[in-house]
Amino acid sequence: MDALRVILQVLLVLSSFFLIMSILLHKGKGGGLSDMFGGGISSSAGSSGVAERNLNRITVAVALTWALTIVGLGLITRFS
């Protein structure tokens, strides 16, 4: 059980990092913090719709992995 807990903890750290990075890569929708970090400049350059859809899919997959890892760690903690 300890090996599974360590694997889930490592997976949680990695998925947290990739979730933060994938969210920060999204194009800003105007206003807010995205403009502070140069979001307004990138909107004039334009981006591919396919790239944005793929980034959305990657973000959702990483978020699901993150959530399932937290549930798994919670179950291990509860029943051990």
Automatic annotation (TrEMBL):
Q: Could you tell me what this protein does?
A: Involved in protein export. Participates in an early event of protein translocation.
Transmembrane segment boundaries: 6-26, 58-77
What's in the keyword line of the UniProt record? Cell membrane, Membrane, Protein transport, Translocation, Transmembrane, Transmembrane helix, Transport
Q: Which species does the entry assign this protein to?
A: Actinomyces lilanjuaniae
Q: How does it sit in the membrane?
A: Multi-pass membrane protein
Q: Which residues form a coiled coil?
A: none
Question: This chain belongs to which protein, by name?
Answer: Protein-export membrane protein SecG
Name its cellular compartments: Cell membrane; Membrane
Recorded hits in InterPro entries, A to Z, give: SecG
Q: Family assignment?
A: Belongs to the SecG family.
Pfam families (UniProt xref):
SecG (PF03840)
State the superkingdom. Answer: Bacteria
